[in-house]
TrEMBL record:
Keywords from the named record: ATP-binding, Ligase, Nucleotide-binding, Purine biosynthesis
Domain (ATP-grasp) ranges: 104-290
Gene: purK
GO biological process: 'de novo' IMP biosynthetic process
Pfam families in the cross-refs: ATP-grasp (PF02222), PurK_C (PF17769), RS_preATP-grasp-like (PF22660)
InterPro entries for the chain: ATP-grasp, ATP-grasp_carboxylate-amine, ATP_grasp_subdomain_1, PreATP-grasp_dom_sf, PurK, PurK_C, PurT/PurK_preATP-grasp, Rudment_hybrid_motif
Catalytic reaction list: 5-amino-1-(5-phospho-beta-D-ribosyl)imidazole + hydrogencarbonate + ATP = 5-carboxyamino-1-(5-phospho-D-ribosyl)imidazole + ADP + phosphate + 2 H(+)
Gene3D superfamilies hit by this protein: 3.40.50.20, ATP-grasp fold, A domain, ATP-grasp fold, B domain
Protein name: N5-carboxyaminoimidazole ribonucleotide synthase
Primary role: Catalyzes the ATP-dependent conversion of 5-aminoimidazole ribonucleotide (AIR) and HCO(3)- to N5-carboxyaminoimidazole ribonucleotide (N5-CAIR). Catalyzes the ATP-dependent conversion of 5-aminoimidazole ribonucleotide (AIR) and HCO(3)(-) to N5-carboxyaminoimidazole ribonucleotide (N5-CAIR).
Annotated metabolic or biological route of this protein: Purine metabolism; IMP biosynthesis via de novo pathway; 5-amino-1-(5-phospho-D-ribosyl)imidazole-4-carboxylate from 5-amino-1-(5-phospho-D-ribosyl)imidazole (N5-CAIR route): step 1/2
Organism: Comamonas piscis
Length: 379
């Protein structure tokens, strides 16, 4: 068997490795952390940083193709690897996803509406901000995730303070929009340009972190879902993207669909695909890398995913405590996925629970029961 490699050893790399291995591949992970979730389940673990030419050369020697699971892997690392083997997604695509200013410019280029925004890199740009963007959210252009590196601002004074607090790094100020809900679409695109998509996911965020994803008939109005899929496809095509891409959207109270951001990899909102679709987002990642045919995944069950954050390990006790998995697994259609992380911390993604059922009503009933057992607020 050939070896497929992944830059980054987090849970996304671990689930990629599981999918690759079940299709007969060996896996190699590049991550400096000796106990990374993906490193623990892979045949090869190259323990080096993303900027270490020796580590990258070792990965290239081991692998037939390479992907990434870590959004902030330097594009230069992907470009170096691409000199000797197929790399998906390409460094150029990842570079755009890493920079909110470049990302928004790409949305504008594709004709996909996004929130009104301004790029703030200098004091002059800060002073020139249009009042129409307030109240808004100031976001660092680079390195933000799970709502980190973001400050909500109501006035020009708050904006100036927030920019100083963020260290006067390059930022994007976005107008705060009245959201009815959020959704996302995951697409996979091959080297030949074939494109398939997962069903549209409806997402609930809490404190900037994805909490719940619901995917079943009627989770969104059909017209919104079709619009989101078309927009995601044009974003991927505009990048000449190869691999798995997630496009996040806002649905405004007016019903208007607005693109939020992209992630150049499988996404937390696509985890339900492991148990509710006949092809998971991780299998699509493998197929893209190995240049195997892409087929449109089919949904066989209504699905809800609950994220299992480290908070749950502290819910009923001041000291760490494992949630009651025996009660959860006694419910029908509960699929537990834990990432092998040892230390639970608040806000840390420790695992997820996929719940499947024959109907939307049944899946919601079971998911709400599971949430009550775990101490997750109802949704
Ligand atoms: P991720 O972990 O998904 O990469 P992130 O840190 O990149 O998250 P965003 O997706 O930019 O953060 O924002 C996090 C959440 O904050 C959004 O899902 C949404 O709930 C809210 N939010 C962000 N921007 C806006 C906006 N312009 N108007 C209203 N709500 C917003
Ligand atoms: Mg993001
Ligand atoms: Mg986001």
């Amino acid at each position: 068997g050939a070896t497929l490699g992944v830059l980054g050893g987090g849970q996304l790399g671990r689930m990629f490795a599981h999918a690759a291995q079940s299709m007969g591949y060996f896996t190699a992970v590049l991550d400096a952390d000796a106990t990374s979730p993906a490193g623990l389940v892979s045949h090869h673990h190259v323990r080096s940083g993303y900027e270490d030419p020796q580590g990258l050369a070792e990965l290239a020697r081991l692998c037939a193709a390479v992907t990434t699971e870590f959004e902030n892997v330097p594009a230069a690392a992907l470009n170096q690897l691409a000199l000797s083997l197929p790399v998906s997604p390409a460094g150029a695509s990842v570079a755009i996803a890493q920079d909110r200013a470049a990302e928004k410019a790409h949305f504008v280029k594709c004709g996909v509406p996004c929130a009104p925004y301004a790029v703030i890199e200098t004091a002059e740009q800060l002073a020139a901000v249009n009042d129409a963007l307030l109240p808004g959210i100031l976001k660092t252009a680079r390195m933000g995730y799970d709502g980190k590196g973001q400050v909500r601002v109501k006035t020009r004074e708050e904006l100036a303070t927030a920019w100083a607090e963020l260290g006067q790094v390059a930022c994007v100020l976005e107008k705060m929009l009245p959201l009815a809900h959020e959704c996302s679409v995951i697409v996979a695109r091959s080297r030949q340009g074939a494109i398939v998509n997962l069903p549209v996911q409806r997402n609930l965020h809490r404190e900037g972190i994805l909490a719940v994803t619901e995917v079943y008939a009627g989770n969104l109005p059909a017209a919104q879902a079709e619009q989101a899929i078309a927009a995601a496809q044009s974003v991927a095509e505009g990048l000449d993207y190869v691999g798995v891409l997630c496009v996040e959207f806002f649905v405004l109270e007016s019903g208007q669909l607005v693109v939020n951001e992209i992630a150049p990899r499988p996404h937390n909102s696509g985890h339900y695909s492991q148990n509710a679709l006949d092809v998971s987002q991780f299998e699509l990642q493998v197929r893209c890398m190995a240049n195997l045919p892409l087929v449109q995944p089919r949904q066989h069950s209504a699905a809800i995913m609950l994220n299992l954050l480290g908070d749950l390990w502290f819910t009923n006790s001041p000291t760490a405590k494992t949630p009651a998995w025996d009660q959860i697994l006694a419910l029908p259609g509960c699929h537990l996925h834990l990432y092998g992380k040892v230390d639970a911390k608040r806000g840390r993604k420790m695992g997820h629970l996929n719940i499947t059922a024959a109907t939307p009503e049944q899946v919601r009933a079971t998911a709400l029961q599971a949430a009550a057992i775990l101490g997750i607020a109802p949704f």
